[in-house]
């Protein structure tokens, strides 16, 4: 059996199995021991380097030795089509989760999972020292739900939500963010507002599009289907050809665009410039997420700030709350926390009320 095949069988990445087989640092002791036990069960000990297999003799704990730290599993689901907008979002979430876990006496166990399902997930985490799992995935599907159902520990989704299933989540308040952007544009005198989106069918993106429809309705603004532009997600950020062609073909453009995220906002600005428009003099643009790109381009992009680092911390806190609820008799508690957003005003929006 090859290392890649072994990694697939155990539900971990080839990089992780390489660290185990070669006795290299980079993963937690609990994960290393768990994987080595599974390797022995499969009869693949010969793949391990000399000295990396655990001794069959159990060492006695010294009197008064501190109890082993519990772990929190951070499960990362990625697929081949997700080298896109969403994965600039997650590093700060992971950092926040790691800091909160450490401050509360937990180890954070990071595992890369297959989007096609992970049959060995429960075995991987069943050694008893994993108190809960944080699940990073853009779109919750049946494979993910099967993984969650296979576990008997609390689980929390990162910025994903399925109202039809009982899975807890910590998310951005997309409704608050989109409504504040539309209200801001209306206050600046904009009555015709368009929307630029990637086309990815991810939970958060779908919610932002729904909220945009609702915000236009509630603020009494026209909801023109001709003002929606799918820029695509796979094209390079420096190549806005698709969006440029769509803008050129449109019979009329709005006075302002709200973009699904900051990457799409930058793409919108570049496409508009190539069509001969100036931002914000001719058309205004607002982004979403407030990434560093907003201050690295001209004009600096007005955007909706979210708190990704805090999101990671709150995922750990929610796992602790779910544990408490379980101890109080709730069999399958389900919580949802939405973190606030904030509009950050920069240079990409023109105030039409000033003429």
Overall geometric form: elongated
Number of strands: 12
The helix-strand sequence is: HHHEHEHEHEEHEHEHEHEEHEE
The CATH topology of the largest domain corresponds to: Rossmann fold
Number of domains: 2
What would your notes on this structure say?
There is one protein chain. The chain contains eleven helices and twelve strands. By secondary structure, the protein is α/β, with parallel strands linked by helices. The strands form three sheets. The chain has a six-stranded parallel beta sheet, covered by helices on one side. α10 links the parallel β8 and β9 (284-286). Mean pLDDT is 86; it is low at 55-62.
SSE order and pairing:
Layout: H1 3-10, H2 14-21, H3 29-41, E1 71-78, H4 90-103, E2 107-114, H5 121-125, E3 130-136, H6 142-150, E4 155-158, E5 168-172, H7 174-187, E6 193-197, H8 203-218, E7 228-230, H9 241-249, E8 256-259, H10 262-274, E9 284-286, E10 303-305, H11 308-327, E11 336-339, E12 342-344
Parallel strand pairs: 1-2, 1-3, 3-4, 4-5, 5-11, 6-7, 6-8, 8-9
Antiparallel strand pairs: 10-12
Helix pairs in contact: 1-2, 4-11, 7-8, 9-10
């Amino acid at each position: 059996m090859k290392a890649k095949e072994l990694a697939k069988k155990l539900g971990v990445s080839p990089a992780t199995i390489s660290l185990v087989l070669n006795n290299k640092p980079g993963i937690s002791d609990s994960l290393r021991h768990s994987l080595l036990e599974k390797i022995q069960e499969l009869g693949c000990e010969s793949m391990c380097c000399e000295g990396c297999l655990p001794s069959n003799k159990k060492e006695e704990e010294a009197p008064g030795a501190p109890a082993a730290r519990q772990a929190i599993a951070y499960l990362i689901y990625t697929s081949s089509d997700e080298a896109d907008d969403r994965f600039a979002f997650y590093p700060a979430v992971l950092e926040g989760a790691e800091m909160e876990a450490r401050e509360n006496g937990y180890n954070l166990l990071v595992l890369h999972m297959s989007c096609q399902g992970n049959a060995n997930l429960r075995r991987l985490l069943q050694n008893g020292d994993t108190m809960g799992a944080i699940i990073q995935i853009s779109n919750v599907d049946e494979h993910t739900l099967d993984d969650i159902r296979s576990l008997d520990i609390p689980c929390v989704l990162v910025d994903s939500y399925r109202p039809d299933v009982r899975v807890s989540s910590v998310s951005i308040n997309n409704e608050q963010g989109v409504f504040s952007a539309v209200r801001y544009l209306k206050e600046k005198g904009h009555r015709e507002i368009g929307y630029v989106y990637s086309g990815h069918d991810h939970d958060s993106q779908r919610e932002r599009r729904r909220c945009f429809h609702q915000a236009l309705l509630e603020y009494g603004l026209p909801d023109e289907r001709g003002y929606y532009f799918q820029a695509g997600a796979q094209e390079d950020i420096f190549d806005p050809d698709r969006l440029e062609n769509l803008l050129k073909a449109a019979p009329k453009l709005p006075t302002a665009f709200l973009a699904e995220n900051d990457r799409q906002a930058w793409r919108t600005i570049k496409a508009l410039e190539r069509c001969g428009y100036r931002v914000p003099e001719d058309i205004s643009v607002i982004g979403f997420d407030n990434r560093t790109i907003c201050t690295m381009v001209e004009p600096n992009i007005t955007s909706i700030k979210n708190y990704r680092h805090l999101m990671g911390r709150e995922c750990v806190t929610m796992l602790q709350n779910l544990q408490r609820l379980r101890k109080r008799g709730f069999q399958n508690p389900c919580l949802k926390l939405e973190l606030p957003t904030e509009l950050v005003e920069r240079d990409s929006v023109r105030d039409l009320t000033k003429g």
